[in-house]
Amino acid sequence: MTVQARFLAELDAQSALRSAAGLLRTLALPAGVDVTSNDYLGYAADPQLAEQTADFVRTHGAGAGAARLLRGHLAIHAQAEAALAALAQREAALLFSSGWAANTGLWPALAGAGDVVFSHTANHASIIDGLRLSKAQRVIFHHPAELAQQLQAPRAGRAFVAVESVQSMSGQLTDLPALCAVATAHGALVVVDEAHATGLYGRDGAGRVAALGLGDQVLCTLHTGGKALGVGGAWLAGPQALVTHLLNHARSFVYSTAVPPAIVGGLLAALVRLQADAAVVAALHAKADWLRTTLAAAGLDLDGSQSCIVPVVLGAPERALAVALALRGDGFDVRAVRPPTVPRGTSRLRLVVRAPLSEADVQRLAARVIHHTRA
Ligand SMILES: Cc1ncc(COP(=O)(O)O)c(C=O)c1O
């Protein structure tokens, strides 16, 4: 057996073990009514937005040709960053090719050895990996009261707090006013990942930090374009001094090809659409409220969700897989989320209420979820 054949056999054996535990990840094409994706507003396949993006590409080309610091910095990047900074009501913004790239570029540029980052227990993998790259000490907290206690410990370096404003797997809304008050009182710098809030909260979808008027207590916010805006890419919004620092030190920005015109054009088109879609967003939240109330009344564990992300916690991975499969049989595209994405014993369906769903769709979804989870 060659070294390569032996290595591949070991990988196959590992996959077989994961499969036996109900934990093997596999790819499945979209099928059925979308109650799973983060395309909350249905922008990803919107014909008008696609047409506007195509026009933009026809004008500006397919690619930027280089990293921003070489020849890849185009007028459209400056234009988009000005619009994104204005949306977040911050001095400046900086585009990245994804939320993953933004988090893994941001943290090592912000924090280093000797610093402490207080990281919420439910933080996304991209925040966790950004912190690992940063060499800062990581301390996990669950709620602002615990953070307040942890922040009392003496420290030599700086303190940062990392949270999501809408938690991506539970759908809980982080108590940002309480958290910012604690951080400010203890001299900690706050960074808020608004991946699941952008487009859905605040004026024109600015996010929860802007909606709550907390911009002056938050160092910077991170926004993704691949969720409610239906496109891709990401940006950080904050003070100019921070953006200048990041464009010098965030390695995923410095050493990566500039965000292509297709993404910039898609983001700009989505930003304009959001200005007209306040009623669509309000109706979406109302549908999500109804689904949560109905599923909770049926006794289901929704992990404290308060948003359009409505998890149904089922426990064992096999059970989550079986219920997801049954719902797919009913015509709903539902996926099971299992460890290590969520803690052991909390495998779940991650339902997402989306604007294109009719009230009848949401009612039928609720009925089928209740039916299959009682079976
Ligand atoms: C909270 C959070 N941050 C960052 C990301 C990564 O964003 P992207 O998909 O643009 O890489 C995600 C994606 O799921 C997320 O949920």
Summarize this structure as a short list of keywords or feature phrases.
alpha/beta, 46% helix, Aspartate Aminotransferase, domain 1, 3-stranded antiparallel beta sheet, 15% strand, 15 helices, 2 domains, globular, 7-stranded mixed beta sheet, Aspartate Aminotransferase, domain 2, 375 residues, binds pyridoxal-5'-phosphate
What structural class is derived from the secondary structure elements?
alpha/beta
**Count of separate structural domains:** 2
| Total count of strands | 12
Our estimate of the beta-strand percent is 5-15%
Question: How would you characterize this protein structure?
Answer:
It is a single chain. By secondary structure, the chain is α/β, with parallel strands linked by helices. Helix content is 46%, strand content 15%. It is built from 15 helices and 12 strands. The protein has a 7-stranded mixed β-sheet with strand order 2-8-7-6-5-3-4, with helices on both faces. It has a 3-stranded antiparallel β-sheet with strand order 9-12-11. A two-stranded parallel sheet has the order 1-10. Helix 2 (47-60) packs across helix 12 (261-276), helix 7 packs parallel to helix 8 (176-185) and helix 13 (278-297) packs parallel to helix 15. The model has no long low-confidence stretch (mean pLDDT 97). Bound molecules: pyridoxal-5'-phosphate.
